[in-house]
Structures are given as C-alpha cells and as structure tokens.
Amino acid sequence: MPSSQIELYSGVVFDPLDPDPELITLEDIAHALSNQCRFSGHTRTFLSVAEHSINVSYLVPEEDAVEAFMHDASEFALQDMASPLKASPAAEFYREYEARLEAVLAARFGYRYPYPESVKRADKQMLATERAMLLKPPSQATTELWEPWLGDIEVFPDHCWLVKGYSPHIAKTLFLYRAKELGIQ
Questions:
Q1: Which of 115, 161, 172, 182 is the most buried (most CB within 10 A)?
Q2: CA distance 116 to 103
Q3: Is position 36 within any domain?
Q4: For 91-110, what is the mean pLDDT?
Q5: What is the residue-wise DSSP string for 45-109?
C-alpha cells in the first residue's frame, strides 16, 4: 500500500495524515504556501496563499493576528482546495485531516484553534476582495456559486491595496518576516 508521506522543502519526510509536530517548521510552511496560487490557480495573476495569510492577519484585532496568519497553514502539506469542493460530502475525509493538522499546528506554534470568529470573517472579506480583483467579472452563475461562501460579505475597497501578487520568493520572505513580527517561531 502506498504511503501518505510527502517530502517537504527541507527534505524532511512528513505524513500529513499522521502529523508529527516536531517535524513542522515555519520555513517549510512559508515555502509551500508561497508557491500555491489562490483559487486553484484560476486567477488572472498569481496570488499566493502565503500573501493571503499575511493580508488576513492585518484585518483582525491584534489579539487574533496569529490565528489569522496561520489559518491556512495546514495547506503547506494538504494543499489548498477550492471551497465548493472542500465543502462537498465527498471531501469529508479532507476536512477531517485538515482539522487534525490544524490542531497539531496550533499546539506546535502556540495559538488558538478553533479560530476566533474574527478570523473567519476576515478570511471571507479577503476572499471577496481577491475574487473581485483576480477572477473574471461575476456572472449570474458565478454569483450563485459564491453565495454560500460569502453571504453578506462584500468587497472592501480599502482592502484592495493589500493584494499585490508577489512572486513566490518575495511572498515567502514576507511570510517569514510577518511570522517573526507576530512572535511565531
């Protein structure tokens, strides 16, 4: 039977389905998230999950910034999955492993999980802003598709300045800088 282990950027062999917290480093998280594009890569320009995470960390009260910054950290090993697919009944296994890895990450880096409500709202605010900036103009079909995810969340023009579309190298550097700023080691 094939193993669920993967090789991380650092060369460490890691099993995201049975995560060992001692093997997880910020360097591996930063590297992987900076190379992953939001919206499963279906954007007009590249925007990394790392940049998204940095941006969300600025949209919450200061006491929730670490949780906001790390809210997608599990994707360093499990990859980003489009929200409609992730919410489908067929992806229940993914959600279970994601929750397990998120809890391990929270314990490893010393932050709260489950995430505060402010993190969930800021993530949706950033999602709405990124969608408006990076995807094609909405049609009736796409508006209906996003309704369950965004609900009453609207695009915040004040947040548009956050979306730069940094290269993976710059996004990684900024991710590590923001982690240090937040005291994450």
A1: 172
A2: 14
A3: yes
A4: 97
A5: S--BHHHHHHHHHTSS-GGGHHHHHHTTTTHHHH----HHHHHSGGGHHHHHHHHHHHHHHHHHH
Let me know if residue 1 belongs to a domain. no
Q: Which residues partner with 13 through β-bridges?
A: 7
Assess contact for 175 and 152: CB atoms under 8 A. Answer: no
Rounded Cα distance, 125 and 110, in Å: 25
CATH number where 79 lies: 1.10.3210.10
Q: Is residue 152 part of a domain?
A: yes
**Number of domains within the chain:** 1
Residue 185, SS3? coil
Alpha-carbon distance of 89 to 174, in angstroms, equals 36
103-138 residue pLDDT tens: 999 999 999 999 999 999 999 999 999 988 898 887
**What is the Cα 145 distance to its own chain's centre?**
20
Residue range(s) defining the domain that contains residue 114: 6-181
List the structure tokens of 166: 């940094």
Assess if residue 140 is contained within a domain.
Answer: yes
Task: Report CA 94 to chain centroid distance, whole Å.
Answer: 15
pLDDT in tens, 145-162: 888 878 888 776 777 778
Tokens 């994450």 -> residue? 184
pLDDT tens string 38-77: 999 999 999 999 999 999 999 999 999 999 999 999 999 9
